[in-house]
Design goal:
- The complex is a heterodimer of chains A (about 525) and B (about 350).
- Chain A has about 525 residues and is α/β, with parallel strands linked by helices.
- In chain A, the strands form six sheets. A six-stranded mixed beta sheet of chain A has the order 6-9-10-3-11-12, with helices on both faces. A six-stranded mixed beta sheet of chain A has the order 18-21-22-15-23-24, with helices on both faces.
- With about 350 residues, chain B is mainly alpha-helical.
- Chain B is about 70% helix and about 5% strand.
- The two termini of chain B are about 20 Å apart.
- Classes of the chains: A alpha/beta (about 525), B mainly alpha (about 350).
C-alpha cells in the first residue's frame, strides 16, 4: 500500500468526518448528535462504557447500520453506505470482536472471500491468491503459510488474518473492536507493532477497547462516548488514564450512595459453582459466596470475566454446571429454572432484547410470564389476579405506559428494562440477580432503576448485580466482588472499595499474578 | 418521573390506530366478507342453507388441522405431517371397524366399539405428534425436516395397513356391536351436523386455551422469544412437544370425519391437506416466525379458503385457474402482513422520535 500523498495529507488531516450522527432503535436511542473525526495515519481511539454507543457508531461507519440522522464525509465528499461492501469499496474495513473468518477455509481463501481473484471471472486463481496472501502475511511479519486452514490458527493469528483481509481490500480506514480482548501478551505486542506500521503507511485506525492503559499507549486521538453522546475529545498529549475514567464515568453521584446496612440472614449460599466453556476453559471457576437479605452486592469485572455465566448458573440455565446452591436453607442445585424461580431466585438478564423480552407480547403478558403459576387457578390464568399484579408492578416501578395491553416494543429502553425487572419481581423472589441492569438505558431511567434496586434491598431482598461500570458499582453496592477469568479475584466492602482497587483486581494479568503468589 | 400525581405516568405511550391500520388488522375478516358477497351475487344458489352447510362441513375438516397447526406455528415450528395423519387415521379407524384387531396366532379377533375406535385413532395421531415433538426438541431436528420425514412415514404406514386398498362400507356390524361410525360424517346434534358442532366446540376450546391458560401464554412466549421464555421458567421442550401432539390429534380428528363422511377409508386421502392448513393459518394472520396469531383468525382464514374453493367450483371456474387464484390470495395475505408489520415498526419509531 502506498503512503498517502503529502499534498492530500497536508490539505486535510481528517480523512472521515461523521457529523451529527443519530441512531434510533425500537425502544432505545443509541446515538445523539455525534461528531467524530478520523485522522489519517493515526490511531483514533473510541472509548466508553458498555452501552455508550461505541459499537453502533462503528457499525454506522462500516456500513452495517444506517444512521437515523446526520451524515458522513469522506475526504470532504458526502458518502452513505448501504452495506458493508459499499463501505469496503470506499476503503473502510471493520474487524469485529467476534472474528468473521471461515474456519474451514485456508488463510488465502479467507482473505479473498469477498472478491476472489479469478481467471476470466470463471475459476478462482488459487496460485495468485496464495502468492498475494503470503505477501500480506509477510508484510505483517507473520511466518505462516497462506495455505494453512484458519481453524488451525491461534486466536491471535486469526486476528492478524482479519487485518490482512482488510489490507487485501486496500482499506484506508481500519476499525478494530476490542482487538486485544482474546490476545496473549506477546500477541498484543505484535498487534501494536502492526498498528504502528499501518499508521506509517497512512492507514487510519479506529480503535475500541476497554483496556485504558492500552488506549493511552497507542492512541493519538481519544474520543469518549457517554450515553450516546460525545463526552470529550482530546489529542494524545492531553490524556491520561484518570482523565479517561473521569470522562467515562463523570462525577460520582453521592445521592445514590446507600446507607450502611447490617444485613442479617444468609439467603443464598453458592459453593464452588463451576461451568466449563467450549474449549475446556472454565467460564466460571469454583466460585463461592453468600448473599444476605437486604444487601446489594456488586459483581464487577471486564467483559468475559464470567459474571453473566455465574448468574445463569445460579438460575439453573446450565444443567451441566457444578457446585451447590442453597436458597433459604433449601438445596436447589439440580432444580430446573421453573423450580428455582418458585424457590425465590430470579434473574434480569444482560441482553434485554435477546433474553429479557418477548417482543411479540404485550407489557402485561411480559410482566406476568415468569409468575404465571402465581396467577393460575386450575387451568386458567385469573384475569383479575394477573391484572392487579401487573398494575401494581407498573406503579411501583414507574413504568411509563398508557395501558398494559400495548406491545412491549413500543416502550423506551428504560421502560423495557423495568418490564424485565418487574417480571422478575412478580415471582416474589428472595434473591434478585441483575446482569448489567443499566445497559442501554438513558440516565434518567438509570437513576430510577437504581433507586428501585435500593428500595427492594431495603425491603429485605438480597440483590446481586453485575456491571462493568465503575461508577455504578461504587455507588450502589454494600459489597463488591470482583471477577476475572471466571474467578472471584477480589472482595471489597464499602470501606475498602476504590476505583483503583477494583480495576486492578479486575485486570486478568493481575489475577494471574495473585494466583501465582498464593 | 419522581414527582408523579396519583400514579399517573408523566409521559404515556398511546398506540394510535389510524384507519388504514385498522383495516389492515381486520383484513382476513374483510376478505371473508368480500368473497361471501362476491359469490352471493355471482353464483345462483350460493346463499342457501344447504349450500352453506356443505361449505361449513368442508371448512370444518380443514379448520381442525389448521387449529392444531396454529399452535405449532405459534411456537415458530411447522407440521407437514398432518395430511398424512388424516390418511393414516382413516385407515386405522377403517381397519378397526372392518377387521378389528386380529390375534391370528390364537385364532380370535377383537372388535372395539365406535368410541374405542375413535379413541385409538386419536391415539395414533397423538403418537405421530409426539414423535414429531421429540424429534424437534430432544434430537434438535428442524421442524420442517422432522415433519417431512413423518409425512412420508405416516403415508407409508397408511398404505401398508391395507396394501394400498380402500376399506369400504364402514358401517360396522351388529354382531360385533361396532356400528355408528358414519355419525361423525353424517349425523346431526340438534339439527346441526356433527362436524360443524365439533368445529364450534374445538374453536372455542382452542381459543380459550390459547388466550386464557398458562399453557397458551407459554406457547406464545416460546414462539416470540425462546431464550426469554426459557429464562422465565417456561418448560420450552414440553411446550413444543405438546403443540405437535395437539396438531397430531387434530389431524386425526379430521381423518375420522373425512372417512366417516365417505363411509370408507382411502390410504391416499388427505394428500396435500397440510398445505391448506398452513394457508388457513397464515391467512388468519399467524406469523410463521412464531409468537403472533389467533385461533379465531385461523378459523376465519379456513373459511376464506373454503368459500373461495367451493365458490369457484360452483361458479364453474376452471380447476387450473382455481389453483392460481388460491395461490395469489395466500401470497397477498403474507405481503399484507409484512406491510402491516412495517407500518407498526415505523409508527413505533416515530412515536419515539417525537
Amino acid at each position: 500500500m502506498t503512503a498517502a500523498t503529502p499534498t492530500a495529507a497536508a490539505t486535510d488531516p481528517i480523512l472521515l468526518r461523521a457529523r451529527k450522527i443519530g441512531k434510533v432503535f425500537p425502544g432505545t436511542t443509541a446515538l445523539t448528535d455525534v461528531n467524530f473525526d478520523v485522522y489519517r495515519g493515526a490511531v483514533n481511539v473510541l472509548v466508553g462504557e458498555n452501552g455508550a454507543g461505541k459499537s453502533t457508531l462503528m457499525k454506522i461507519l462500516a456500513g452495517v447500520e444506517r444512521p437515523s440522522a446526520g451524515l458522513l464525509e469522506l475526504e470532504g465528499a458526502p458518502v452513505s453506505f448501504a452495506s458493508v461492501r459499499q463501505a469496503a469499496e470506499h476503503g473502510i474495513s471493520i474487524i469485529f470482536q467476534e472474528l468473521n473468518l471461515c474456519p474451514n477455509l485456508s488463510i488465502a481463501e479467507n482473505l479473498f472471500i469477498g472478491s476472489p481473484i479469478s481467471r476470466l471471472s470463471v475459476s478462482v486463481d488459487h496460485a495468485t491468491q496464495r502468492r498475494r496472501a503470503q505477501a500480506l502475511l509477510d508484510r505483517l511479519g507473520q511466518h505462516i503459510d497462506a495455505g494453512t486452514l484458519v481453524s488451525e490458527l491461534r486466536i491471535g493469528q486469526q486476528q492478524i488474518v482479519e487485518i490482512a483481509k482488510a489490507l487485501a481490500e486496500e482499506a484506508r480506514i481500519l476499525i478494530m473492536d476490542e482487538p486485544t480482548s482474546a490476545l496473549s501478551g506477546p500477541e498484543v505486542t505484535i498487534l501494536f507493532r502492526i498498528i504502528e506500521e499501518l499508521k506509517a503507511s497512512g492507514v487510519a485506525i479506529i480503535y475500541i477497547s476497554h483496556r485504558l492503559e492500552e488506549l493511552v499507549r497507542i492512541g493519538d486521538y481519544i474520543t469518549v462516548l457517554r450515553d450516546g453522546r460525545i463526552q470529550a475529545t482530546a489529542a494524545k498529549a492531553d490524556i491520561s488514564v484518570p482523565w479517561i475514567i473521569h470522562q467515562m464515568v463523570g462525577p460520582l453521584e453521592t445521592a445514590l450512595t446507600p446507607a450502611v446496612h447490617h444485613p442479617e440472614r444468609v439467603v443464598l449460599q453458592a459453593e464452588k459453582i463451576s461451568l466449563a466453556g467450549p474449549q475446556g476453559r472454565r467460564l466460571v471457576d469454583e466460585v463461592s459466596f453468600t448473599l444476605r437479605s437486604g444487601e446489594v452486592v456488586g459483581f464487577y469485572g471486564l467483559l468475559g470475566a464470567g459474571r453473566s455465566e455465574l448468574f445463569e448458573c445460579l438460575l439453573g440455565v446450565h444443567a451441566e454446571a457444578g457446585g451447590t446452591l442453597t436458597v433459604d436453607g433449601v438445596d436447589v442445585s439440580g432444580m430446573t429454572i421453573a423450580e428455582r424461580l418458585r424457590r425465590g431466585v430470579a434473574l434480569v438478564p444482560e441482553d434485554r432484547q435477546r433474553e429479557g423480552l418477548v417482543q411479540s407480547l404485550s407489557v402485561r403478558a411480559n410482566l406476568s410470564l415468569a409468575a404465571l403459576w402465581r396467577f393460575a387457578k386450575f387451568f386458567r390464568i385469573s384475569n383479575a389476579a394477573e391484572r392487579s399484579g401487573v398494575a401494581s408492578m407498573i406503579r411501583s416501578l414507574w413504568i411509563k405506559v398508557a395501558t398494559p395491553e400495548v406491545e412491549v416494543t413500543a416502550l423506551s429502553g428504560g421502560n423495557q428494562q423495568k418490564v424485565v425487572i418487574g417480571k422478575a419481581l412478580l415471582t416474589k423472589p428472595k434473591v434478585l440477580l441483575l446482569d448489567e441492569p443499566s445497559r442501554g438505558i438513558d440516565i434518567g431511567a438509570k437513576a430510577e432503576v437504581f433507586r428501585a434496586i435500593r428500595e427492594l434491598a431495603d425491603g429485605g431482598l438480597a440483590i446481586a448485580f453485575a456491571t462493568s461500570d465503575l461508577k455504578e458499582v461504587l455507588a450502589l453496592s454494600d459489597r463488591v466482588l470482583v471477577m476475572a477469568e471466571g474467578r472471584i479475584a477480589g472482595a471489597f466492602t464499602r470501606e475498602t472499595m476504590t476505583e483503583q482497587g477494583l480495576v486492578a483486581a479486575a485486570t486478568p494479568g493481575a489475577a494471574g499474578v495473585r494466583k501465582a503468589l498464593q | 418521573m419522581v414527582s408523579q400525581e396519583a400514579g399517573m405516568p408523566a409521559r404515556v405511550v398511546r398506540p394510535r390506530m389510524s384507519i388504514p391500520m385498522l383495516l389492515m388488522s381486520m383484513r382476513t375478516f374483510i376478505a371473508l366478507i368480500v368473497v361471501l358477497v362476491f359469490f352471493s351475487i355471482t353464483t345462483p344458489n350460493f346463499l342457501t342453507p344447504s349450500t352453506l352447510v356443505i361449505l361449513a362441513k368442508h371448512v370444518a375438516v380443514n379448520a381442525f388441522m389448521a387449529i392444531g397447526m396454529t399452535f405449532v406455528i405459534l411456537t415458530g415450528g411447522i407440521d407437514l405431517s398432518v395430511g398424512s395423519i388424516v390418511g393414516l387415521a382413516g385407515m386405522v379407524a377403517g381397519g378397526l371397524i372392518d377387521y378389528g384387531i386380529p390375534f391370528s396366532h390364537w385364532g380370535f379377533t377383537i372388535y372395539p366399539n365406535v368410541i374405542e375406535t375413535i379413541a385409538m385413532t386419536l391415539g395414533a395421531g397423538l403418537v405421530i405428534g409426539a414423535i414429531n415433538g421429540v424429534l424437534v426438541t430432544r434430537f434438535n431436528v428442524a421442524p420442517f425436516i422432522a415433519t417431512l420425514g413423518t409425512l412420508y412415514i405416516a403415508r407409508g404406514a397408511a398404505l401398508l395397513v391395507s396394501n394400498g386398498q380402500t376399506f369400504a362400507n364402514l358401517v360396522g356390524d351388529p354382531a360385533y356391536d361396532n356400528q355408528g361410525f358414519p355419525f361423525l360424517g353424517a349425523g346431526t346434534i340438534l339439527g346441526i351436523p356433527f362436524s360443524i358442532v365439533a368445529l364450534i366446540v374445538l374453536t372455542a376450546v382452542a381459543a380459550y386455551v390459547a388466550r386464557n391458560t398458562p399453557f397458551g401464554r407459554q406457547v406464545y412466549a416460546v414462539g416470540g422469544n425462546e431464550n426469554a421464555a426459557r429464562l422465565s421458567g417456561v418448560p420450552v421442550m414440553r411446550i413444543k412437544i405438546a403443540v405437535y401432539v395437539i396438531s397430531g390429534v387434530c389431524a386425526a380428528l379430521a381423518g375420522l370425519v373425512v372417512s366417516s363422511e365417505l363411509v370408507a377409508a382411502n390410504p391416499a386421502s388427505g394428500e396435500s391437506f397440510e398445505l391448506n392448513a398452513i394457508a388457513a393459518t397464515v391467512l388468519g394472520g399467524t406469523s410463521l416466525m412464531g409468537g403472533r396469531g389467533t385461533i379465531g383468525g385461523t378459523v376465519v382464514g379456513a373459511f376464506v379458503i373454503g368459500v373461495l374453493s367451493d365458490g369457484l367450483v360452483m361458479l364453474g371456474v376452471n380447476a387450473f385457474w382455481q389453483m392460481v387464484i388460491k395461490g395469489s390470495v395466500i401470497i397477498t395475505a403474507v405481503v399484507l402482513d409484512q406491510i402491516q408489520q412495517k407500518m407498526q415498526r415505523k409508527m413505533a419509531l416515530q412515536a419515539q422520535l417525537a
